[in-house]
Amino acid sequence: MIDYGNRIFKSISNTDNGEVSNETVFHYQQQQNIVHATYSGGDIVYGALVGTIDENSCLTFRYQHANTNNELRRGQCFSTPELLADGRIRLHEKWQWLDYEKTTGESMIEEVVHT
Predict the structure, then answer these.
(1) What is the pTM of this model?
(2) How do residues 20-58 score in pLDDT, each as one tens digit?
(3) Where do the domains of the chain lie, and which CATH numbers do they carry?
(4) Phi and psi based region of residue 57 (left: phi greater than 0; alpha: psi -120 to 50; beta: remaining)
(5) CB-neighbour burial class of residue 1 (10 A; exposed 0-12, middle 13-18, buried 19+)
(6) Is residue 46 classed as helix, strand or coil in its secondary structure?
(7) How many CA atoms lie within 13 Å of 63's alpha carbon, on the beta-carbon side?
């Protein structure tokens, strides 16, 4: 099972109805089967997510954030990991807004190597 603790991810793609951009950075932590993260950048002023990890290292979580328009947004996401040749993780995400907008989308975030 993948340990998501102390990993940093950056968005590499998102559908047009999403607010996360290539300027958005996620800071992941893990405690047993619970994963949580904070994120910000681009149109996101501050965001947080919390979820669970399954036996295949897939993540199911809820997220919420405040954007630069002072709106509070929330949604749900299912992420499937891909291990890259260099050992980093790429997450393939299927998400849905759960606020006034009920649309769905797909995105990818990729681990950033930090020193």
Answers:
(1) 0.95
(2) 999 999 999 999 999 999 999 999 999 999 999 999 999
(3) 7-112 (2.40.128.30)
(4) left
(5) exposed
(6) strand
(7) 29
